[in-house]
Amino acid sequence: GGARTPTLMARIRVDLGGLGLGVVVPDPAWIDAGVAVAFALLADATLRGIPANVPGATGAARRVVLGKISL
């Protein structure tokens, strides 16, 4: 997850202008579980044919179904 990415955390610290930054979770495994849940949600949207991108955040021209299912 992002909380375990040193480059991302360093960038957030810079953007906060010197304010303290810490990550507090009751169980560190939750960080990894969140990534797994996000991928499961994306996979479900792909299987259902539901667009899952956010053009305003990604710069994409339109909403599209993400991923490819190969059997």
Describe what is shown at a glance.
The protein is mainly alpha-helical and 71 residues long.
- Our estimate of the beta-strand percent is under 5%
Uncertain runs = none
Largest sheet: none
Q: How many strands appear in the DSSP assignment?
A: 0
- What pattern of helices and strands is seen along the backbone? HHH
Characterize the quaternary organization of these chains.
Answer: single chain
Determine the N-to-C terminus distance: 28 Å
What is this structure's SSE topology?
Elements: H1 6-15, H2 29-48, H3 55-58
Please characterize this protein's 3D structure.
- The chain is mostly helical and 71 residues long.
- The protein is 48% helix and 0% strand.
- It contains three helices and no strands.
- The longest helix has 20 residues, at 29-48.
- It is flat and about 45 Å long.
Task: For the structure shown, list the relevant keywords.
about 0% strand; mainly alpha; flat; about 70 residues; 3 helices
